[in-house]
Here is the input.
Amino acid sequence: MNRSKRRGQPKGARSSAGDGGRRLDQEKGAFQKKWTGRYPVALIYPNSYRIGMSSLGLQLVYRLLNEADRIVCERVFLPETGGRPVSIESGRPLDNFPVLLFSISFEHDYVNLPAILLAAGVEPMAEKRPESFAAGAPLVVCGGVATFMNPEPLAPFVDLFALGEGEVLIPELLENLFHCEGRRERLLREMNRDHRGFYAPRFYRPVYDEQSRQRALEPQSGLPPRIARVHLGETDTAGHSELLTGQTEFADLYLTELGRGCSRGCRFCTAGFIYRPPRLWDTAAVLRSLRQRPEGIERVGLLRMEITDPQTLQSVACYVCEDGCELTFS
Here is the structure.
C-alpha cells in the first residue's frame, strides 16, 4: 500500500459524509481508497469516536487492513445521537460491508455490539445468519483486549473471535478470507482448526456445573480443546499513533510503544497477565516509529515505561529532545 494514499494536513469540510466527513477533514493519517475492485471491511469500535480514536489497537488494525491493496477498510463508531451507524471515510452503512470487524477494549462496551448490529439492520444472532456471508449478511469478527479476558458474553453474536495481537492475526485472517469464497462454515472451521488464536463459538458446547456456572467448552471433533492467545515476538517498528485528531483524549500527541506487557504481575491488573510475556522493543524499532510522526506534531508520549531499560529510554529521550519535541510519560 502506497503511504501517499493517506491524508495529511486537514482540508476544508466535505458535506457528502456528514459528521464523518467533518471529522475526516480534521484528521492526519486516514486512508483514502477507492472501492472499485476491493473487498470492503468495516472496522467498528462500539463506543464514541472520541473514545475509539484513543485506542492504539484500533489504529494499528486500521493500518494493517488498509495496507492490503485488495482491502478497503473504513471505521465505524457508535452513533452518538442514535440512527444508523455509518463509516467515517465514505458515510456508507454497515449493509455495504461483507465483513464487520469489531475492536473492543472495555467490557462495558459488550452491550454496544448487538446494539450496533440491530441499528444497522444486521441479524444479531450468529446462528441465524445464512451460510454465505456478503454485504447485508456479513461475517462478524471480534477482537480487542477485552475479548482476551472473556469472549463468552459475546459468543451468541460473533462468528469468529481473533484472540491475540493484530500484527500476527490480521494477515492470517485476510489470507483465508479471500479463498473461502464467502462460505461461512468453511472459513470458521479452517480458522479455528488450523490457526492459533481464532475461536468460532458455534463449534463449542458450554458445559455447566450444578450451580449453572460454565466450567468448560466441549469442541467438535478435530478442533482444539483450548484456544491460545497469540503474541507478537518482535517487530522492526514499534506500535505508534496512526491517526491524529483534535477530537480525542490524546489530541496532537504522538504515542509510541516501548514494549508490551508488564513484568510486575500485580494480581489486580488484567493487562499484566493477558499481555504476557512482557516484551521490550529494540531501540532502533522505537526510533523508527518516532521518525514516522506527521509534520507539525511536537509532543511525543511513551507507553510501557515500567518495563523499559535505561539505555533505550536515554536514546529515545535524546532523539526527542534533539528533534525539538516535548516528551510525556504515561
